[in-house]
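Thread: pyridoxal-5'-phosphate complex, take 2
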Amino acid sequence: TCIKPGGTDVTGELFQLYYINMSVQELEKKKTIDLRKKHIGPSCKIFFSHDPIKIVRAKGQYMYDENGQQYLDCINNVAHVGHCHPDVVTAGAQQMEMLNTNTRFLHDNLVLYAQRLQATLPDKLSVCYFVNSGSEANDLALRLARQYTGNKDIITLENAYHGHVSSLIDISPYKFHQLSDAEQSQFVHVAPSPDVYRGKYRAGHPDPATAYADEVKKIINNVHKKGRKIAAFIAESLQSCGGQVIPPVGYFQQVAELVRKAGGIFIADEVQVGFGRIGSDFWAFQLQGQDFVPDIITMGKPIGNGHPLSCVVTTREVAEAFMSSGMEYFNTFGGNPVSCAIGLAVLDVIEKENLQGNALQVGQYLTNRLEKLKEKHLLIGDIRGRGLFVGVELVRDRAKLTPATAEAQEVIYKLKEQHILLSADGPHRNVLKFKPPLCFTTEDVDLVVEKLDLILTELEEALG
Ligand code: PLP
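Output below.
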């Protein structure tokens, strides 16, 4: 323990408020929190902000704090094949020892990786652009769409999130509720989220896919009335931050037909949900049926297993229209040899360890166990998911769908006390989100579900 209050560090001021008997670890953590406050933008959010965890290492589906305490990671969807997977670490380190450079030099990893990615996709999607984040990927997707179509207007979904760069703020109503830039926002149109639990057209509706597609049609007609045309419709293949929403089958195909007829293209954002997570298919847009192929897909988070790596894949026609406009594309770090070596290793691990199959099997087990909990706990309004992408929507009243926001936050904090990391999202922050690494096991599921059961029992008793 620390026996002296106060003390100084490089800043000369941070220790003034520390107390006698704070353990060395607590002191170190407090110091990190203070340094974060001092040097990092105050709007940069942190998990469990009133009592953040200091993570010092991670392995598989576990993270460890400075005291060696293990946490089960159910949310960190960038550690796709497991944290610090040795094959991925080795591939990155070996390439780093040999060469890293920008993409203006010829190097094999870039083309090898592009070929491997394209092998997971329909033939039509045959041209890659490598970037470093999901936001960059979506920003480029909009540029490609506008250049190819010659149009400017974009349709996005209510509660969507596509990234933080300025071109995406208006198309990400989930995080940025007020349209930010009057100039840009006049070209952005928000269609209702195709949510069949809480949305405009719900379960029980005879054809929610068509009803939601008709909403897009209305927007297209309004744009035409203004004498303009649609450049693109953009949607997350499964809406993630917006509350783990699974669009009804047929919706994307109908929207794609409408949008293409109106001169636009379809962009599927796979940044959170692609890459084997849903188990049954490698990409989440494939849930919409074999006939549906987007014109552009964007990917990020899991593909580098925590290393910054993202990609836009599109058709030859779209890419050629971009080039013929004189638009040279250059990205210093996008597709560098180290990123691509890591990307290749991630794909190898998914195959070698059958992680897509594991996502399907363990995801189904998780959903089944949660469905059983729903029979017991009235607080659970809806379970929805595919593979290891599962949402649990908590409600105070099943008939009225009153969001149980405070209860969802309680669940998150109580689980954290039990060393299980989960988050709550959705427009009412009442949807518990499961997006663990794909090496998650049925034992992990048992542990979380048992704890969740106890916490929900306590909460329901308190509600009376
Ligand atoms: N698209 C989706 C669906 C996302 O969830 C995110 C990030 O959360 C992004 C894009 C932006 O990705 P990044 O944070 O890597 O820029």
